[in-house]
Every structure is written in structure tokens, then in C-alpha cells.
Amino acid sequence: MECGDKLILVVDDEKAIRESISDFLEDTGCSPDTAANGREAVEMIRSKKYDAVIVDLNMPEMDGFEVLERVAPENPNMPIIVLSGVGVIDKAVEAIRKGAWDFLSKPISSFSVLQITLNRVFERARLRAENRLYREHLEEEVRRKTAQVIEMSRSLIAAQKEIILKLGDVVETRSHETGNHVQRVSEYTYLLSKLYGMTESEALDIKLASPMHDVGKIGIPDNILNKPGDLTEEEFAVIKTHTSIGYSIFNTSELPVLKLAAEIALYHHEHWDGSGYPNGISGNNIPVSSRITTIVDVFDAVSHSRIYKDAWDIEESCSYIKANSGKMFDPELADLFINNIEQFLEIHHRFTE
Ligand SMILES: [Fe+2]
Ligand SMILES: [Fe+2]
Q1: For residue 216, which of 262, 183, 260 has the smallest C-alpha distance?
Q2: Which CATH number fits domain 7-123: 3.60.10.10, 3.40.50.2300, 3.40.50.300, 3.30.2350.10?
Q3: What's this model's pTM, rounded to 2 decimal places?
Q4: What is the pLDDT of residues 52-62, one digit of tens each?
Q5: Which end of the chain is more exposed for a tag (fewer CB within 10 A), N or C?
Q6: Peptide bond into 287 cis (omega under 30)
Q7: Average pLDDT, the chain
Q8: Nearest ligand to the C-alpha of residue 171?
Q9: Is 259 a catalytic residue?
């Protein structure tokens, strides 16, 4: 037997048996300890780490069953071999149920049986330890990889957000709109979506997509886009195409957030009563993402100065929203906006230009 310096506890009330087993173990290179009863054995097991315990079931002072009950649950990885009288197989089965790894019949006729049994339990203990290590390693690896994936998607989302805002900025700059317009529209749409009862992820999608509502202005000639005076009918017709241009920029994308951006770009000038453009659709036929963006886009436009107009004060801006509820705007959304104006004004002040 390959015993190495394994520490084995032999527990038997019969001194002769204790000693003969102990002698045999010493001969094979193990380091045996002995205990004459269960009580002593339990104390020793609790104070020292044994590689295996061989314990007699039938002892006057605390029998082997009680030893098993006390130490097996605390030491699930320590092999315990029980010694039972010949012919009392029921007892051996009961011991196995209580946590014994194997059993031997007394008297031990040949030590080779003990040797085989010990080899068997040591092999099992080794496999269990290996398995445990593998599992721990695997769990650690899964934890590490999961953290990596989370970090990766976090930075991807951050990058996506930044690119989108920058794109909105480009349009903003080109059309000489007020600074931070797209940033405010983004924050406003998120707030209004939440107030409307959307889930966090739906609201976040709109927050991400709404800054690109005017991206189609990229396709509008400068002299029309930045004309300070009134537009002719033809010029206005050209301006209107920024909705469908924006749509065609994003609609072919596979990314859901860009699909949403396409939808918002196309419909953000539609009016609740059907008087908007490009399609003149009305009511709930206009996607809610666009109905939300329309209100906050208009509110932000009127409450800040533009090349063609001065800024209105907040009261005037709110009156405009109220006056157009049910006309330009979804009345339910307009009510939500007005009833929670303090929260919107917090954003208005946070992102001043
Ligand atoms: Fe627009
Ligand atoms: Fe806008």
C-alpha cells in the first residue's frame, strides 16, 4: 500500500485489535494514532486532521455509530471505515447511511483486506478532492469570464452612447442649434418614457436613440438649413425631408437602437391631430417613441433661442405645450410633461449651454 505519511486514527476498545492494526499500519509507512473509545476519538478528530479513521462499531463508551454521527457531517472528505462483527451486515449498512465510507468484518482475518479497503477509500478521497478543485477552478473561471463579458458590454454601451451623442452634436452644430440640445432631449425622453410607464430598458433605448432625431439634417443644404429669415414653401419642403433622410440613414441597421432612431427620425414631426409631416399620420398611429420626442424637442426649441427666434421663458414654453395638447402633442404625454415639469426643469437647468 502507498501510505506515505498518512495519519490514520484507529479506534477500538479491544487493545489487541487496536495494536495489531496500528502495527500493520506502521509497517506500511502510515502514522497511526489510537483511541480506546468513541469519546476520545471524537476529541482527537476535532483537534487533528486525519487522512482516515478506522472505528469499531461496538464499544462500551460511545459506540461507532455515535462517532459517525458526530464527526462524519463535519468531515465529509475524511474517509471513515467501520469495523463490525461478522454476520451483522445490517449494522454495516446503517453505518454507511450515517456517513461511513466502507466497512470491514471483525476479526480481521487478513490485513490484505484492510490494505485493499484503505487503498479504495484513499483513491475515492483523492478523486473527490480533484473534483472539488476542478469545480472550484471552473467556478472561478466562470466568474472571471462573466466579469469580463459584463465589462466588455459596459464599455460597448458607453462607446455606443458616446458615438450617438457625438453624431447628434454634429447635426446640432451644423444647424446652429443651441448647445446641449441633443443632450437635453436625450434626458427628457428618458424621463417622459419612465413617467409614461415604460420599463427601464425601453426608456434607456429611447434615451439613446432620441438624440439622433434630426440626423437627416446632414442632407439639407446649408443655405436652407441656416436661413435666418422665413423659408419659402419650396425651402420648407426641403427641410421636411430631414425626417425621411434620417430614417434612411438608420433603417437598414441591424441594431435595435438604430432601428428605433430611424423611427424617431421619421415621425418626430408628426402631430397628434394629423397635421404634421412627412406622412400626416395621427394619434396612436405615430409611434410612442416619436410622440415622446416631439414634445420634449419642441419644449427645448421654444425655451432656448434659435437663429430665427429668441428664447421663451418657462411659463410661456409650458403654455405652448398645453395649448398644443391634442393638436401637436399626445394629450396624455402633454399632461404628464406639465404635471411633472419640475423634474424636466431640473434637466433644463443641469444642461444649460
Ligand atoms: Fe426635426
Ligand atoms: Fe431637435
Answers
A1: 262
A2: 3.40.50.2300
A3: 0.62
A4: 999 999 998 89
A5: C
A6: no
A7: 91
A8: 2
A9: no
